[in-house]
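2 proteins. here.
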Amino acid sequence: MLVKEAIILAGGLGTRLRTEVPDLPKCMAPINGHPFIAYVIDHLQKQGISQFVFSLGYKSDAFTHFLDKTFPATQCKIVIEKEPLGTGGAIRFAAKQIAGLHAVVVNGDSIFKNNISEQAALHEQMDADCTLALKEMTEMERYGVVETDANHRITAFKEKQYYSKGLINGGVYLIRVDRFLQESLPEKFSFETDYLQNFYQKKNIYGIAQEGYFIDIGIPEDFKKAQTELILSNA
């Protein structure tokens, strides 16, 4: 199964990053002379994604200016929240612009360089409503842990606390768009809490552990770390 469309959530406030980036949305934080989201787009394009829907909110003008300069209008659509809808509401708002049955969903302030084709193969095989890319981490407190059974079906979402080792939600989702849009959910909701954690026992929700570089620039420490670890290959 080839997936060509992606939703990028790029409306976050970035309150924990204000000391480093006071006047920009988090996804526009500069990394080696390029906005962070340029690295996210670059990875997705290398994985075969050619059509993008950008879900914007906070300081969206800065983002649209970047798009106008660097991105062909034929390859992207923009939706702008009038008020914060939560991650779930933002995905649903953007998903109405998706033409196909399936779409990749990522956050604009983190990157997981996973293999989307491998993720899509499991998604298709299991006729999944949603398939998560999972990343093994060690010595962590910032993330909750996701557990799966032998068939990759998600069996538990465990709360954030210290873990010596575990699989985290890598923030790359494959969704069956038509099914997601049919769910009875409020206008504003959290994708992680109100959809994934509430529905994983009722719906076909799977997770696949994958290798690949991962970073979330939501805190100053990792924002600075990204400066030394990320290079934009097509710059």
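next one coming up
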Amino acid sequence: MHGDKITYRGKKISAADKALIMLHGRGGSAEDILSLSTYLEVEDFALLAPEATNNSWYPYSFLVPPAQNEPGLSSALQWLAAIEQDLVSQGISAEHIYFLGFSQGACLSLEYTARHAKKYGGVIAFTGGLIGDQLYTENYQGDFEHTPVFIGSSDPDPHIPVERVHASEEVMQKMNAVTTVKIYPDRGHTVSQQEIDLVNQLILKK
């Protein structure tokens, strides 16, 4: 279902030490999420932006039972696994692979890394949470080994309940992620300069 289009920016993978996988939100595109890179400290990164079929990773809210979001959800997770494996095969180790997403892409970034936890470079979720009508912790395996994880969101947000943000943080902390969560009052469903500054400082500049 997914897996047809990846847009590349930044350094060539063969010349890069680090890679950032960037996941757009529902209705967005690879170019949309890549536009954030001009504000991020990613001069040394290979940038990869997969684009979802019909610009949506899965059809319904991330809060419905996961079976209702199939086959899109599993297809998206499988594609991310293939991208990660391809980067490793080209010489970029997992600890130098970073994930960033906005909204639906943020949820997917968190869900994928929690299902395949290891020492990554970092996980950046601009407005997102782990996926499901409840948290299916039996799906989450591995040890983040102090991977830095950032989740930012608004209170309220029309799509992402604050309670799910905090519950997601708790799950990832138990898997040895080093988490930073920032909740911004009445910010709206967007990415703020404060978040970008924090992500640059805490994750990308390291």
